[in-house]
Design brief:
Layout lengths: L3 H8 L4 E4 L4 E6 L3 H11 L8 E3 L15 H10 L4 E6 L6 H4 L4 E5 L4 H10 L2 E2 L14 H8 L5 E2 L11 E6 L2 E6 L4 H12 L2
Parallel strand pairs: 1-7, 3-5, 4-8
Antiparallel strand pairs: 1-2, 2-6, 3-6, 4-5, 8-9
Helix pairs in contact: 3-7
């Protein structure tokens, strides 16, 4: 698990590679513009594509000026915590460095308690998979180091990770649309009828 030193690095605007609930992620503080910009540069990510944000609790959403209506909250309570990333409306211009003009952000409340505890200490984290765009996600820290070398401030390993990326769904006015099938697909299918008929 990530050490106290890694938490300090993240809180001070650093970036690094650590295991998430799905794959290894290249992470940094979501509310730190410089850290987010650095991740885009290091990962060579398309500047038009937003990043998924890991949160430690529903309360974190208010930090992005997101207020949940009753129906949306009930849907999320059926899906979280878990490996499902949910796209929510976020039109505020002050978060344009995150939503990249899409006026929406994707959030995930991961299931592992150690990860939620980490995020509680660091604040919400952007967490794209640990690979340059167009390359396979790193399954090991060795692979991640080959990709990023000294451009990441730390590496925290947890063996070989073979999970697919998270399932992504969009959620707007209680309407649900699946964007990408991945980890959490079974959870989504199990709850699909219940969620759509709430």
């Amino acid at each position: 698990m990530p050490s106290r030193n890694f938490i300090v690095i993240l809180k001070n605007g650093g970036i690094g590679v650590l295991p998430t609930d799905t794959l290894y992620g290249l992470v940094g503080q979501a509310l730190d513009k410089k850290a987010v910009a650095r991740i885009y540069k290091v990962r060579r990510r398309n500047p038009k594509k937003p990043l998924i944000i890991l949160i430690s609790s529903f309360r974190n959403l208010s930090r992005f000026s997101i207020k949940l209506d009753v129906k949306t909250k009930k849907i999320l309570e059926n899906l979280w915590p878990g490996p499902i990333s949910v796209i929510l409306s976020c039109p505020q211009s002050k978060f344009s460095y995150l939503h990249r003009g899409t006026n929406s952000l994707a959030f995930r409340l991961p299931k592992p308690q150690w990860l939620r505890r980490l995020i509680k200490k660091t604040g919400p984290l952007v967490a794209p998979s640990a690979n340059p765009e167009g390359f396979p996600p790193a399954k090991t820290i060795k692979e991640a180091k080959r990709y990023f070398g000294s451009r990441a401030d730390f590496y925290s390993g947890a063996g070989k990770l073979k999970s697919p990326p998270s399932t992504i769904i969009s959620l707007k006015h209680g309407k649900i649309k699946i964007i990408r099938e991945g980890a959490g697909k079974n959870l989504w299918l199990k709850n699909k009828n219940v969620l759509e008929n709430r």
